[in-house]
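Appendix B. Raw example, untouched.
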Amino acid sequence: MMKVQVRKSILIGIVFLSLIFMTGCGTLETLVKKDGATTPLTEWIGANENKEVSVPASTTGGEGKSVALYFPDKSGQFLLKEERMLPKTVSLARETVNQWLKGPMETDSMQSSVSTATVLRDIAIRDNVIVVDFSKEFMLSNSKVAPEVALYGLVNTLTQFSTVKQVQIRIEGEPLSKYGTIDATHLAYKAGLIKGNVP
């Protein structure tokens, strides 16, 4: 008797799920209209509660965005710009840093600044300052690259966004004050390190 009730419950569950999947694609559209208006059900489940108020250096629509990534040239003394198309993403700044950590695609003329094992732990933007927190591998800079060039590859990459004027770096949560012999407390865009730019 108990087995029959369990089987009926399972069968009802399967039928219910099947109905959801069969009507699935249209169901979400009926809950949230194309113009962003809500229905009472979406209001009840709180679909609009977690809207981000203002996320600088971010995008939510379109086909993605082209960003500039700065990598050391082969001499390790200057930076070269590599344009890269990033997919549509909520946090453009986070995706930009992750792409920078992967290193350049044009390896004939450029090289990575830091170990590609480096992991971005966290990123936040507030009052035109971006704070990036990396794993300890960030400190394993490329020996063929001048520390200043390695550091400003990241800084120049991040300051391309109009909402970012200054970069603060943390390693495993601790503020970075020196990178090699370079003062890392006030990091802002440095055009003089880009090959072809006059300081």
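End of appendix B.
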